Amino acid sequence: MGFNMYDMIGYIAGFLVSIALFPQVIKTWKSKSSKDISLCWTIILMSGLFLWIVYAFSYPILPLFIFGLVEFSMVLTLFIFKFIYK
To answer: How far apart are CA 3 and CA 75, in angstroms?
Structure first.
């Protein structure tokens, strides 16, 4: 299978979803405060993203896999900040 319009849509969607948390990560890092970030939300999102990555790897769906890893990394960063910046 070659690259098609739907692949492009997948890459664009993945990129947009992946950068959505970037401002929150930067804000948390700069302010050194994570009090407004829900630990429950973070754990649920990390779990869903992990399953998304496993799913994308098993089929393989490259855009979903790549940007799932990027998004998971950002949420993991927020998770770590949650404990560092109590």
So the answer is: 29
- Cβ–Cβ contacts within 10 Å for residue 67, how many? 24
Torsion, CA 52, CA 17, CA 34, CA 49, rounded to 10? 0
The answer to whether the CB of 23 falls within 8 A of the CB of 37 is: no
Give the residue carrying structure tokens 């869903």: 48
Does residue 6 carry a pLDDT above 60? yes
- The answer to whether the CB of 18 falls within 8 A of the CB of 70 is yes
What are the pLDDT digits (tens) for 14-26? 899 889 999 999 9
**How close are the terminal C-alpha atoms of the chain, in Å?**
49
pLDDT score of 7: 84
pTM of the model: 0.86
Pick 5-84's CATH classification: 3.20.19.10, 3.30.465.10, 3.30.300.20, 1.20.1280.290.
1.20.1280.290
